[in-house]
């Protein structure tokens, strides 16, 4: 029996099949090869991913008329307008056409950048997301969000550009650095808290094996988290004020922490973990069960997060105010009401955030 | 009786009302004001348009919470990734949000750039197109195409981002330079040749008055051309191989001429006029009526086009090969079969284009 599962995301532009599990790249190999056959194939990836897993793309490269590998730097550093511009110029010089194909082969940043570059090249070419990190497999690769950063705000420039295909091969996770696994597990836990109580229990019960990237422990957790993401995205594909917003649990402060830290020192998932801890403090003030909040904080304390970098509270607050999810009325906070259930709360005064922020930055794991 | 007409473009993302005619900005003024009410309003425009017609935006500015005017250079020069990046940074610094509004107030380049900037800011904010040139009113503002240029190819980076509203006030055309009127009339004639034989007759009968921007002569011609564009776009909203492609009549060579000339010396419509002349030569070889081709060439000779700049045929050919409408199989040519009827022809050998191009560049109005 194959350990590869197939999900389907329906969205306004069509539907995206999602292959997930150990060996997914092999199982989806023929489909991928057919999709690129006799076309120019652009591969956006990093040197590390290429060195570790480049062989998995051999069937694609053989089917394509020609393959142009576009290597970019790791992580958020690649998500700039300048890098996107460089890739577009190279794609044009290499003879890229409207029916050329682009594959984003890497973590969340490669997926964001690759998706954006595909979405705007000649007004949009087809893209496949081949996520190689836990975070990208359960979250970033699903749902069509693409973006690059501006100095003042993460993901400030981008568009919705749904992939034609997502292939998350969990066997690639074995080579993932421990901090990348931890970062992805934060997004997994997020999915559990907002949409799947059983997933929270699974993370709690197997956290040490998960952190060690144990494939048996990871497989069910990746599948459950991705399935939750698919459900939330399908209900609100372009985040028009519905369920998709719930995925921003932990992200309002998380993004601001990343911005204030200059996108250095904290991985995305680590920032989201701290963001969830802060959101739990706001939630407790609105009636969220104290014991449950303590249980989640205890679970997050077992993640072994790096300490928060030294941050100036006012700079974090300014970044919160600039959050791109904010409406003209101000930022919206996603706060849990119960396990597996959350809501968007617009009525969080800036003064309340300011009051809670400094003590939080000093002692994030303390009872809020 | 109002001389303002209302068209409606249905597309996959909703529908776009289009107000056209003398006084359209006044007629649509309340709708526009409601649309920006209490929000941040970004106005992408040029110093010239602002000086001549800025007053027409007063009701919008009064309704908006605040208005940020983003002035850009005239024409194709504004359509760069660098300019887009600068606007995004300024919008972010000015407190732009997902529910902020952007108005593109100017010609086709302002519309292309403004639409692109709106389409990618925070993954897309709503835009209204307020075209001030003939070309933009009949063509560029309708249909959701947005783009910036790369040095190697025009419109190489962009997306489909349909405006919420288009308001083409033909009374603004009175201040248009003669060469801008001529450029727009080339797109009008294009629409007639591919989709509306009566429009060709109207242009033929009133060309001198049209070139002089006579409002009585322009009104019916603007309306007919815009209506033809709406019909073709509605039938194939994102140019997926259907009728919308016909709008590229004259554009395969036209874009290449612009590119080879470094976007200088030829306005877009003027380049399209030459592109149509060349396409007519290809069409004649495929059975298009010789007398009709001669009639259209004679009509175009009355436009008073500037002479073609000195161009190297090989550079023009290379630009044709890079055309973003091309598939991996090569560029597609739109060729008329009869008046008001055209088709996409993929089987034009590069050798045939090469053979015809040098004599065409030397004597574009000669019988092909």
The quaternary structure here is homodimer
**Strand tally of chain A:** 11
Spatial order of the strands forming the largest sheet of chain A = 1-2-9-6-5-3-4
Tally of contiguous helical segments of chain A: 15
Biggest sheet of chain A: strands, sense, closure? 7 strands, mixed
General shape of chain A: globular
Unreliable stretches of chain A = none
Structural class category of chain A? alpha/beta
Q: Overall mean pLDDT score of chain A?
A: 94
Give the percentage of residues in beta strands of chain A. 15-25%
Please report the distance between the alpha carbons of the first and last residues of chain A. 47 Å
Order of helices and strands of chain A: EEHHEHHEHEHEHEEEHHHHHHHEEH
Q: Using the CA coordinates, give the radius of gyration of chain A.
A: 20 Å
Estimate percent helicity of chain A: 40-55%
Task: Count interface residues per chain for the largest interface.
Answer: A-B, 40 and 40 residues
Report on the architecture of this protein.
The structure is a homodimer of 368-residue chains. Chain A is α/β, with parallel strands linked by helices and 368 residues long. Chain A has helices at 24-27, 29-36, 47-53, 58-63, 81-93, 108-120, 134-140, 178-195, 197-211, 215-235, 251-260, 268-284, 290-301, 313-321, 350-362; strands at residues 5-11, 14-21, 40-45, 66-71, 101-106, 126-131, 145-150, 153-160, 165-169, 333-338, 341-345. The termini of chain A are far apart. The interface between A and B is large, with 40 and 40 residues.
Name the features.
15 helices, alpha/beta, two-stranded antiparallel ribbon, homodimer, 11 strands, 368 residues
């Amino acid at each position: 029996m194959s350990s590869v599962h197939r999900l389907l995301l329906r969205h306004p532009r069509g539907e995206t099949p999602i292959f997930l599990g150990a060996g997914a790249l092999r199982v989806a190999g023929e489909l991928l090869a057919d999709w690129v056959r006799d076309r120019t194939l652009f591969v956006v990836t990093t040197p590390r991913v290429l060195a570790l897993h480049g062989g998995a793309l051999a069937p694609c490269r053989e089917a394509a008329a020609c393959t142009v590998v576009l290597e970019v730097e790791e992580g958020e550093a690649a998500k700039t307008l300048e890098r996107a511009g460089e890739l577009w110029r190279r794609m044009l010089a290499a003879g890229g056409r409207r029916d050329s194909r682009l594959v984003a082969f890497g973590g969340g940043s490669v997926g964001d950048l690759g998706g954006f570059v595909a979405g705007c090249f000649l007004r949009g070419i087809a893209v496949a997301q081949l996520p190689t990190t836990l975070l990208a497999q359960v979250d970033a690769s699903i749902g069509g969000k693409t973006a690059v950063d501006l100095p003042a705000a993460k993901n400030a420039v981008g568009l919705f550009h749904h992939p034609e295909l997502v292939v998350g091969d969990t066997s690639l996770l074995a080579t993932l650095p421990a901090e990348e696994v931890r970062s992805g597990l934060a997004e997994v836990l997020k999915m559990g808290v907002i949409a799947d109580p059983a997933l929270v229990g699974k993370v709690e019960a197997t956290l040490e094996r998960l952190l060690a990237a144990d494939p048996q422990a990871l497989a069910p957790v990746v599948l459950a988290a991705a399935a939750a993401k698919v459900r939330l995205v399908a209900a609100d594909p372009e985040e028009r004020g519905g369920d998709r917003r719930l995925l921003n649990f932990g992200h309002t402060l998380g993004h601001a922490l990343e911005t204030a830290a200059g996108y250095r020192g904290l991985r995305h998932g680590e920032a989201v973990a701290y963001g969830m801890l802060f959101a739990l403090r706001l939630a407790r003030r609105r009636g969220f069960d104290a014991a449950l909040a303590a249980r989640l904080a205890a679970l997050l304390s077992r993640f072994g997060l790096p300490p928060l970098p030294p941050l100036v509270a006012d700079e974090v607050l300014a970044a919160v105010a600039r959050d791109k999810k904010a409406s003209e009325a101000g930022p919206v906070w996603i706060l849990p009401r119960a396990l597996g259930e959350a809501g968007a709360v617009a009525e969080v005064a800036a003064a309340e955030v300011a009051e809670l922020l400094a003590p939080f930055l000093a002692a994030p794991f303390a009872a809020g």
